[in-house]
């Protein structure tokens, strides 16, 4: 639907993945590709009612990148490349599946909780079969800004110019060169987002509520924002936490099956055959 400041709202849907991880999943009704270059977004939260927290046992990927932002708790990462890592609160893990990666992720509770966001970002056709890679970005390396009272911004990736000063995010490897902002707003806090013509701009609210003009975006909703004008985001009475994702669409054909995202069905068939034959990561 069209409303001032944004083009449509998408409600996250309850889903389950891995070994019983319950999450909120954002996927456009038209399927992957409709929010190009974002493929999907998962919002997972695990509480201490579990004796053994559910997780994501070893599984394959090909043809895209993942980005995991830990809002609370931690995530243990292991992959076939030999990476063994622990992503703590406030940290970001980036992984390029490329031609193939096999990895496992296990939430680790801190103070009885683990909460995070994971994005799937598409790779352009030229990079679909590139070398897989992994990197953790410590929280201390992510620039923090306070452009207005009650507004805190962490620049994860891309360049953000505020008041004549440009800040560069530490994640430079993502192929779609996104702007990724982790926003925290106190009750009534405001953030002015400049126009980005030609970019797809998406705002996911994981806590509280955000208003643009007179229209609200509540928790577990993703809004596709108008890219042609500057927008003012205002938090509701409970404050808000949100992730801004902006990038130029790849505008390439897309084929998807389970953990594989390619450009054609033939490439999907090849990915399945390679995995079944044990050569996905060759």
From TrEMBL:
The lineage of its organism: Bacteria, Pseudomonadati, Pseudomonadota, Gammaproteobacteria, Chromatiales. It holds the Pfam family Pirin. It comes from the Bacteria. This is Pirin family protein. Residues 181-280 form the Pirin C-terminal domain. It comes from Marichromatium gracile. Belongs to the pirin family. Residues 21-121 form the Pirin N-terminal domain. InterPro entries: Pirin (IPR012093), Pirin_C_dom (IPR008778), Pirin_N_dom (IPR003829), RmlC-like_jellyroll (IPR014710), RmlC_Cupin_sf (IPR011051).
């Amino acid at each position: 639907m069209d409303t001032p400041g944004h083009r449509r709202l998408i409600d996250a849907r309850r889903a389950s993945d891995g070994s019983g991880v319950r999450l909120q999943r954002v996927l456009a009704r038209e399927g992957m590709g409709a929010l190009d270059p974002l493929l999907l977004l998962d919002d997972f939260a695990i509480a201490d009612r579990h004796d053994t927290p559910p997780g994501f046992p070893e599984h394959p990927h090909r043809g895209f990148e993942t980005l995991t932002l830990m809002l609370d708790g931690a995530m243990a990462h292991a992959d076939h490349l030999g990476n063994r890592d622990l992503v703590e609160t406030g940290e970001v893990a980036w992984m390029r599946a490329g031609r193939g990666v096999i990895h496992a992720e296990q939430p680790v509770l801190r103070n009885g909780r683990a909460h995070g966001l994971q994005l799937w970002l598409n790779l352009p056709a030229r990079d679909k079969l590139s070398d897989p890679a992994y990197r953790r970005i410590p929280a201390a390396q992510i620039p923090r800004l306070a452009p207005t009272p009650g507004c805190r911004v962490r620049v994860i990736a891309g360049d953000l110019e505020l008041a004549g000063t440009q800040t560069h995010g530490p994640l430079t490897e993502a192929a779609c060169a996104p702007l990724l902002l982790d926003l925290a707003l106190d009750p009534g806090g405001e953030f002015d987002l400049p126009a980005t013509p030609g970019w797809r701009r998406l705002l996911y609210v994981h806590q509280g509520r955000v208003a643009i003009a007179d229209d609200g975006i509540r928790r577990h909703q993703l809004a596709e924002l108008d890219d042609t004008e500057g927008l003012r985001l205002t938090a509701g009475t409970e404050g808000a936490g949100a992730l801004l994702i902006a990038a130029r669409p790849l505008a390439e054909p897309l084929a998807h099956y389970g953990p594989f995202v390619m450009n054609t069905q033939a490439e999907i068939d090849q990915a399945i055959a390679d995995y079944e034959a044990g050569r996905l990561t060759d």
